[in-house]
Design goal:
Layout: H1 3-26, H2 40-58, H3 68-91, H4 93-107, H5 113-134
Helix pairs in contact: 1-2, 3-4, 4-5
InterPro entries: DUF1468
Keywords: Membrane, Plasmid, Transmembrane, Transmembrane helix
Pfam families: TctB (PF07331)
């Protein structure tokens, strides 16, 4: 089995877990004012991940050996994301999201101060502004 197929199957399982497990458990089943339910957008994104994962799993590819350095980076991304989600629960979005974004940017090799500021500070602030101020939806 190739790495592409393994990755594709992983993302199909991930998407299914999100659609039928995580998203329903983390959103309100009925939104009172008749607007779009809060689970729609994450479900659409999860479905897209599943579709692209399925396409990746169906591709024919050459067998590659596992690159341990790349596997370590992938594990690092997972652990930073997990720590960021847990930190959001305890410290709130405004404190945890910039640290999460900066950690991920640093891990993937970004060192330019302007891009670190945009991705690590301006990005989370923009997300907070859109959700909290414009949409009136509380972030953790």
């Amino acid at each position: 089995m190739t790495l592409q197929r393994i990755s594709g199957v992983f993302f199909v399982i991930f998407a299914a877990t999100m659609i039928w497990g995580v998203i329903p458990a983390q959103t309100e089943p009925v939104y009172p004012d008749g607007s779009i339910p809060p689970e729609v957008l994450p479900s659409v994104y999860a479905a897209m991940i599943g579709l692209f994962g399925g396409a990746l799993a169906c591709q024919r590819g050459e067998a590659h050996t596992l690159d341990l350095r790349q596997a370590a980076k992938t594990t690092g991304v997972y652990l930073i994301a997990l720590a960021g989600v847990l930190a959001m629960k305890h410290f709130g979005f405004l404190l945890a999201a910039p640290a999460l974004a900066l950690g991920l940017l640093w891990l993937v090799g970004e060192r330019r101060p302007l891009w670190l500021a945009i991705g690590g500070l301006a990005g989370p602030l923009l997300i907070w502004t859109v959700f909290e101020i414009l949409l009136g939806r509380l972030l953790p």
